[in-house]
Write a structure and sequence with these properties.
With 435 residues, this protein is mainly alpha-helical. The protein contains 17 helices and 6 strands. Pfam families: Phage_integrase.
Amino acid sequence: MSEFLTRRAGFWHYQRRVPLAFAEHDTRGIVRQSTRIRIADDPRGTRAGRAADRINAELEAFWRASLVGESTDAKARYDRARKDARRLGFEYITAAEVAQRPIAEILARFEALAAGKPDDRPAEDAVLGRVEPPALDIDGLFDEFEALMKPSLKGMSEDQVRKWRNPKKRAIANLVTVIGNKPLSKLTRSDALDFQRWWIDRVMVEGVEIETANKDIGHLNKMLGKVEHTHRLGLGPVFAQMRIEGGRTGQRVAFAPAFVQDHLLKAGALDGLNPDARRLLYLIAETGLRLSEACNLTAETIRLDDPVPHVMVRPIGRRMKTDQSERDMPLVGVALAAMQAQPDGFPRYRDKAASVSATINKFLDENGLLPTEGTTLYSLRHTFEDRLTAVEAPDKVAAAMMGHKYHRPRYGVGPSLAQKREWLERIAFRAPTEV
């Protein structure tokens, strides 16, 4: 049995810590790769040991190549070839693709070379497509995808970028766990099926939600599609139509308004929370703001001295969830009291919605303030919408306050602050003695 063989989730896996000599080039710490051999089929690990030895040989070759910079050199040569081709007026394509182009274009490429310097080997390689694209592997998929998506990330805050990155990185890490790291050009439909089967096993044995698996599959499909389109890897839709059937997106339930008033807003009920977190909860309960919207209010967007005190939800240093999210919300009841105590906003939690969400939800759970399964801090937004429905607020007014798209064509400037306040006062909570 190979010294690098270990048991994991019913399969034999190769596992080895990256030697210190290569740690700078391979930051994974520990390399794990499935042999795809079930323990039940090979209880002594004989076949798996041979597979692990092959994986180890390939890995050591990769480490040695990384140490001398072969991967970096290959990328540098390819990038230069693309630039040289553009400089001479051509798109960089491989030699095989050049051969398939119309004869007029092929002749134009040779004429451009004839007009340039004699024996210009880099130009010849660029125009005739003689530089192979660098081999992209699964571990490098996210970095390549992120580089291609840079324009679409413009305007996101640091926390929004983190939330965008993490599920994609997690999907790649899970894929490597199942099939190991390999060049993207070697990725097959069979690998995708192995990954799907791994998730199905987890759903059946561990009770993992189907939608959790489908999110991984969806992220991989999108990343591969984008990189495939850019680099012409010839993979085809490896992860297309691989979603697991039977999943359903969980719907957060709302708090009953009476529970909010009698328990969450009961004097002293939230004294165990720090003041910023407590007042954020009060603000959300009364206005239905998303937590990220509330956390990122500033002194400039909190207008307490205006005829109608209100907060302005704006994309300051971050991207709004939708175009309709940008809105002005009057302050009444417990929200007005909270913001009078926090006139500069919540700098402690600015761009840290995930942190305060975890803090508040943990407190509510530990103190018996989550009455039914599925209720969380975000449920207060659903409660806010239910309260507007209960007083029969017009759809246009409700959509404007929720930051939702109104289903009819938009005319005029929409409901005024005074009109919004009128409806909010109908549903306002009683504020605790001390906020």
